[in-house]
Each structure stands twice: as C-alpha cells, then as structure tokens.
Amino acid sequence: xxxxxxxxxxxxxxxxxxxxxxxxxxxxxxxxxxxxxxxxxxxxxxxxxxxxxxxxxxxxxxxxxxxxxxxxxxxxxxxxxxxxxxxxxxxxxxxxxxxxxxxxxxxxxxxxxxxxxxxxxxxxxxxxxxxxxxxxxxxxxxxxxxxxxxxxxxxxxxxxxxxxxxxxxxxxxxxxxxxxxxxxxxxxxxxxxxxxxxxxxxxxxxxxxxxxxxxxxxxxxxxxxxxxxxxxxxxxxx
Length: 238
Fold this sequence. Notes:
With 238 residues, the protein is an all-beta fold. It has one domain (2-123, 138-235): Jelly Rolls. 0% of the residues lie in helices and 55% in strands. It contains no helices and 22 strands. Strands 1-20-17-22-15-13-14 form a 7-stranded mixed sheet, with no helix packed on it. It has a 7-stranded antiparallel sheet with strand order 2-3-4-11-6-9-12, with no helix packed on it. The protein has a 4-stranded antiparallel sheet with strand order 5-10-7-8, with no helix packed on it. The relative contact order is 0.19.
C-alpha cells in the first residue's frame, strides 16, 4: 500500500477577494512538483465565490470537469447553449473534448457559493463536448456510499470518459464502511467534506485528503457525527 496525505492547511491558496480557492494539486500560480496529480485526477479545487460574482467565459479542452456544489447556487452557461443552475445536492459534468467555452456565476447577490471543481484526465481525446447534471438523492448516502459518477451512463450518476467512480458517504459517528477497489490498476483519493474520519488507521479532518494505491480495499470510520466524505477511484496511469 502506498499513501500520500494532503492536510487542508498544506494546500495552495488563491484569494482574489470575490474568490477564495484552495488547490490540492498544482493549479494557476500554485505549483508543487510533488503535487501535480493523483492518477487521473489533475485538479481538486475547493472554491468559495462571493455573492453575485463568478468566472467569466473561458475555454477548456480535453478534460473531464466535475463540479459538486456544497453550499449555495452556481449558474452555468456554455458555448453548447446550455444554461443551468446547480445547487447543493447536484453534480455537474462537462466533457470538454475538442473545446468548449463556459462561465460560472453565483446567482445570489447576498449569499456565498461553495463548490468543488475536479478535473479528470480523459481516456479519449477530442471527443464531442458534452454537458450533464443530476440532482442526487441525499438519503442514499446515509451510512453508505452513494455512487455519483461512473464510466457508464446511469439514471442516478453522471458519467465521464474515464474508468473512474466517485462516491459520497455521510456517516453517523463510529459507522465503519469498506470500499472494494474495482481494479488493481486503480487508486482511491479520499477527501473529507466535513467532520473527521479514520481511514486505514490515519485520522483525517475536514478538507484533508489522502491518496491510496496498491490496495484492494480501504476501510474508514466516522470519528464525528454526520461526517461526509468523497471517495474518487481512478486509474493510476492516465
């Protein structure tokens, strides 16, 4: 088993006044040669956007981009003609493929928005750009792992062009779960959304992350009530 631990206070940070962003992996002006990616995960940004503010139109290509709102609403517009609002409990995916422009704004002038933006390196280049979002049933993650992203189309999860699976669990204190890794070529990156967890005998607190590879399963226990975790299983060779 190999592990890498990224404590919340070790992340890169950018603060533009209207945007506070914490970078688990190298992004923008933050570059750490030891933290460029974990397998196919290239970016894990933890963003807070002030009321009425946002990201103007900007391009992406050949990347699978996943947004998970944690608080507030985020309005999305793109060059494919999609206009949508994602909110807490939703998940959004954009396969940038051959190229796409989009913008993201906090549509509420008096409330901040918090969301994760995750970039996954695709297993196919230059695909036709695609957009999707789903509203998840939060009850399906109580004391178990809810599949929210997969490699195949699903009614209950978004999908991307990569052999990756994301899960969210919200656990009562002392609940223990195990996750069986789908392939020995995969690793799992665990990111604590709230509370604290014991993962393979390592304690992680809110916004801490840990990558684990060369394993067949991981075991984790909630150390606080209503602790929430995101597990991202991805190929280690992207």
